[in-house]
Amino acid sequence: MEFAYTRVSTQTQTDHSQEADILQSFPSIEIYRDVCSGTIPANDRTQLSRLLDKLRKGDKLVVWWIDRLGRDYQDSESVIRNLLASGITIRTINQNLVFEYTGDDIRDMTTNIQITMITAMAAAERKNRLASAEAGRQAIKQNPELWAKKFQGRKRDQDRTTKIIELLESGMSIRKVAFEIGCNPSTVQRAKKLMSMG
């Protein structure tokens, strides 16, 4: 049987992109979903622990990326190796990789090396993201006014917005306006929203 697993950290996040990518390759797959911090070990995640109990030899587990399967390098690697040792195949969507033990010592050692490298890289990327976020928070605390000024966002092109509104008022469609102005339809939609507010 084929199963998939997704995880997001908070209720405000969604797994829609992970799920869409999985369903594109496996349209009728059963998906288990967790909403929990990535710091929670695999066996303490409600849906993942249920799925791990359900998986049997010959089953396939599909994940968007390998880092979804554990809290950190050690946890992810342990979960993956236990699954493979149980005869389960793991397929990743992000890099289109397949991990399985075949009984051939050389191939299985190569798989173990791949798992070690990939889980270590995923853990390093996570630490780098956390460190960058913390550096940003500290910089904001030290000089909030400078950060507010520096990152206030891109200013609206008032001339372009006026032209978009004029074309919309003339009855032109959003797509035609976008083509005429040379911008995205979403830019036209934002101008149309401003027009309705004004």
Could you list some keywords that capture this structure?
alpha/beta; elongated; 198 residues; 5-stranded mixed β-sheet; single chain
Helix content class = 55-70%
CATH homology superfamily of the largest domain: Resolvase, N-terminal catalytic domain
Kindly report the average pLDDT value. 86
Strand order of the largest sheet: 2-1-3-4-5
Q: Count up the domains.
A: 2
Uncertain stretches of 5 or more adjacent residues: none
How can the largest sheet be summarized? Answer: 5 strands, mixed
Q: Note the run of SSEs as H and E.
A: EHEHEHEEHHHHH
- The CATH architecture term of the largest domain is 3-Layer(aba) Sandwich
Shape: elongated
The helix/strand class is alpha/beta
What percentage of amino acids are in beta strands? Answer: 5-15%
Structural account:
- This protein has helices at residues 16-25, 46-54, 73-85, 105-142, 144-150, 158-169, 174-181, 185-197; strands at 2-8, 30-35, 60-63, 89-92, 98-99.
- The protein is 56% helix and 12% strand.
- Strands 2-1-3-4-5 form a 5-stranded mixed sheet, with helices on both faces.
- It folds into 2 domains: 2-125, Resolvase, N-terminal catalytic domain (Rossmann fold), CATH 3.40.50; 158-197.
- α3 runs antiparallel to α4, α6 packs across α7 (174-181) and α6 (158-169) crosses α8.
Layout of secondary structure:
Blueprint: E1 2-8, H1 16-25, E2 30-35, H2 46-54, E3 60-63, H3 73-85, E4 89-92, E5 98-99, H4 105-142, H5 144-150, H6 158-169, H7 174-181, H8 185-197
Parallel strand pairs: 1-2, 1-3, 3-4
Antiparallel strand pairs: 4-5
Helix pairs in contact: 3-4, 4-5, 6-7, 6-8, 7-8
